[in-house]
Amino acid sequence: MIEKLLFATLGFVTYPTLYKTIRYSLPASVVSDYSKNEISGRSVSAIQALTAVLVGVITMMNTGDDIVYSRFIPLDYYVCFWIPYFYYDTWADYKVYVSKRANEMADKDFLSRVKSFVKYQPLMVLHHFFLPMVYGPALLHFRHGKGDYIIGCAITMQATIPFISLRHILLQVEMRHTTLYIVNGLLLAVSFSIARIYIWFHLVHTYAVYRDLPFIDGFLALPTICSCCTIGFFILNSIWFVKILLLVKRSSKEILNLLKLSKSS
Questions:
Q1: Would you state the pLDDT for residue 252?
Q2: End-to-end alpha-carbon separation of the chain, Å?
Q3: Other C-beta atoms lying within 10 Å of the C-beta of residue 220
Q4: Distances (CA, A) of 65 to 196, 207, 209, 238, 239
Q5: For residue range 203-234, what is the model confidence (pLDDT) as tens digits?
Q6: pTM above 0.85?
Q7: Can you tell me the distance from the alpha carbon of 248 to that of 189, in angstroms, rounded to the nearest whole number?
Q8: What are phi and psi of 64, to 5 degrees?
């Protein structure tokens, strides 16, 4: 218990420290507070996501022999370290929100700024505030040590976040009409198709093999809440995947048009 509290404390210290370190390390060309806060926040998100993917892959490699009962104890410590990220991320988003509206927020006191932020992003704030209260007990206690492989697989879904973060960073440094922006968009689409779409088929297939059942029977053998969540998340991620593809298509067209204009001139 003491060790888990120490890892949680380490998380509360690490994320804001990393944020401030990146912010103060940005080049002088990044002038506005909004850009500094956005780039710093997105950088921390990318680092956190890469760490999560690494932990997820290592967990899967160490628990693949029995996807239900095999244990990988470091996963529990990572969860303790990861949970504070949600509270940090709320603070980082608040900093971005306020700095983006500096003139509007200048005459407001702290409480008024917080109220304005919560009103602007109520779902995100609720998500980040209450999700750890559910994830913490569920992952550390109520699952009774079962499903480390499944948890490891689930956290690899964050493989898309570094590309999302890089997209926002490139926008801040005015690199939207560049090859790097297009390549990043394509990598985002590829990573999303694997980490947010294919992964659900992989989980169902793995569970079906574990139960020695065909794929469809394996899906039907899932607990009702698991099958409903699988369908719900698959549909939601499919919608987002289509939006990402449309975004990549639009960005590619914009750059191609700019290249044509430059050649014609």
A1: 76
A2: 68
A3: 12
A4: 24, 12, 11, 30, 34
A5: 999 999 999 999 999 999 988 888 888 898 89
A6: yes
A7: 8
A8: -70, -15
